[in-house]
Design brief:
The protein has 280 residues and is an alpha+beta fold. It folds into two domains: 76 residues; 144 residues, Heat Shock Protein 90 (2-Layer Sandwich), CATH 3.30.565.10. A hairpin with a 2-residue loop joins strand 4 and strand 5. It is elongated. Bound molecules: adenosine-5'-diphosphate and magnesium ion. The site of adenosine-5'-diphosphate has 22 residues, from helix 5 and helix 7.
Length: 280
């Protein structure tokens, strides 16, 4: 026989009045948790990739060294042969030798590019090296802007919005590299004319360097991938996809973080946050 259903006394919701504010708190906490989770996954990925990359860079480096040195020698020998036999070689043989030399030079340039990549991979995997000292962030930003002047020239207006001028203790060379990567990306994102605002501030005991561009923006589906090593949307030869991966590791090693906000077609803001008062 079915039991008569007991009517539950009508009560209000099981939370006190005025509790609805907590919903918002919960949502915020949840968002924070999710953000932390993304950071954790990312750092785990980076740690294992770091080891893998160090191994690969090492393996590439040895054969690369002898290939480069051989190319250098062959180029020298060909130059000698061409100089020594300049009168006695018939035209066709000479043309072939010159062609061979041109190819050797091309090969050398290609190998140099591989070497640059290997250097970047090594930086990526061994970020504990470098000198710890205080840098004047404003000065560091200015020197990066100077390096990139040929790319910004007449087309990009650069606004320096330095709310904070001061020294930041950090691994100086590495932080410079972060600034270079982030600002270079902002320059690359602006196809024709546009603006880049570089700013400094302090927030919650963190030194904040922000780089805001009026460039192409990042599609939503790519935002999570931009820190992945080798993720690039740039044409072959222009992007290595290592800039942000390296920057992420450097900033993480400093106990900081990088925040990215982007609106497709409107622009992107990248904020690099480094804790103040770091010691070596
Ligand atoms: N400021 C930016 N605006 C638009 N896209 C960006 C910006 N910064 C980074 N990206 C995207 O992230 C990708 C990865 O950047 P990065 O790691 O520096 O590698 P690379 O610059 O060699 O492509 C870029 O190819 C680009 O798609
Ligand atoms: Mg880059």
């Amino acid at each position: 026989m079915p039991r008569p259903r007991r009517r539950l006394p009508r009560r209000g919701p099981p939370w006190p009045r005025g509790w609805h504010g907590r919903d918002q708190d919960l949502e915020e906490a949840n968002a924070k948790l999710r953000e932390t989770q993304v950071h954790l996954i990312q750092s785990e990925k980076m740690a294992s990739l770091g080891q893998l990359v160090a191994g690969i860079a090492h393996e590439i480096n040895n054969p690369l060294s002898f290939a480069l040195s051989n190319v250098f020698s062959i180029d020298g020998w060909l130059a000698d042969v061409l100089a020594d036999t300049c009168d006695c070689l018939d035209g066709e043989v000479r043309a072939r030798l010159e062609k061979a030399r041109a190819r050797v030079v091309d090969t050398g340039q290609g190998l140099e590019r591989v070497r640059e990549l290997v250097v970047k991979l090594r930086t990526f995997s061994r970020l504990d090296e470098g000198e710890f000292k205080s840098i004047d962030v404003r000065e560091a930003i200015d020197s990066v802007l100077l390096f990139l002047r040929h790319k910004t020239a007449d087309r990009i207006e650069v606004v320096r919005d330095f709310a904070l001028q001061g020294d930041l203790p950090c691994y100086a060379g590495q932080l410079n590299q972060v600034l270079m990567n982030v600002i270079a990306n902002a320059v690359d994102a602006i196809e024709d004319k546009g603006t880049i605002v570089v700013g400094t501030a302090v927030e919650d005991e963190m030194f904040v360097i922000s780089v805001r561009d009026s460039g192409c923006g990042i599609p939503k589906e790519n935002v999570e991938r931009i820190f992945d090593p080798f993720f690039t949307t740039k044409p072959v030869g222009q992007g290595t996809g290592l800039g942000l991966a390296i920057s992420y590791k450097i900033v993480q090693a400093h106990g900081g973080r990088i925040d990215v906000r982007s609106e497709l077609g409107q622009g992107t803001e990248v904020r690099v946050l480094i804790p103040l008062g770091l010691t070596a």
